[in-house]
Amino acid sequence: MATTLGELERSVMEFLWASDEAMTAYDLRDRLAAAEVDRSPAITTVLTVLSRLENKGFVQRQRTSRPHLYRAQASREDHMAELMHEVLGSATNRSAVLERFVGQVSEREAALLRELLESRSHR
Amino acid sequence: MATTLGELERSVMEFLWASDEAMTAYDLRDRLAAAEVDRSPAITTVLTVLSRLENKGFVQRQRTSRPHLYRAQASREDHMAELMHEVLGSATNRSAVLERFVGQVSEREAALLRELLESRSHR
DNA sequence: AGCGGGCTTCTACGTTTCGTAGAAATGATT
DNA sequence: AATCATTTCTACGAAACGTAGAAGCCCGCT
User: Fold this and answer.
1) Which of A5, A105, B60, B73 is most buried when burial is the number of CB atoms within 10 A of its CB?
2) Which fold has domain A7-72?
3) Cβ of residue A5 near strand D, that is under 7 Å?
């Protein structure tokens, strides 16, 4: 469950997260070729990676149209929040972790956190 | 930098994090043998893992006394808070991540966070 | 219905990381 | 110097990932 992403897997997810629309493997291959200077994976490579990401639950595939369509299962933000909770959840001393976490955020973000906690409290 | 730990590496770190004192590889081997039912690694295995952890910056080694002494570089809590910051730092939309993060914590922890942010503000 | 070509799945190999530990080197102690 | 504890070197198997060719599948066209 504490799945980690490889480098190409991560790049693919970045594109899927950045796009509201579902994409085809061909779209992704082209984006990858354009973005990564030294790398331009074959279409089969992209499809393999997409299958793996599907198995890991990161990607949802639509088999209805013929070049299959892929989309991120959760938003990038959801995923990251989930990761943070995963870390926190594995701690024995959660308050100590939170204490250090809060101690290190910028004042700007501290203010944001206060706001978020405020609006959360009367709901 | 975003280093991930293997299973044995993690077990070793657990013991080091749990102990205030520095430990020898022999100590660790014994603890591992006692804790893990099916596993009891050779001393060389433990030493290999400790070297790798040292290279990764998780462990600090004292070569002064002859059975070398090992200690965790950072506390478990520091490490976890750091991990959380690492995740957050890699986000393009930090506030969106924080929003989801805060939205999912328990009321108890929300209260704790409010406190921490409070005491932080008049530091 | 058969065929051809795009699309997908299967299979496979190289690399890296980690668990594992013997062999070799080092160094202290008598 | 010889011996024994300790450390370092070297190596191999397994799993995850990047990589992509080979084989199979599906659909429109004639």
Assistant:
1) A105
2) Arc Repressor Mutant, subunit A (1.10.10)
3) yes
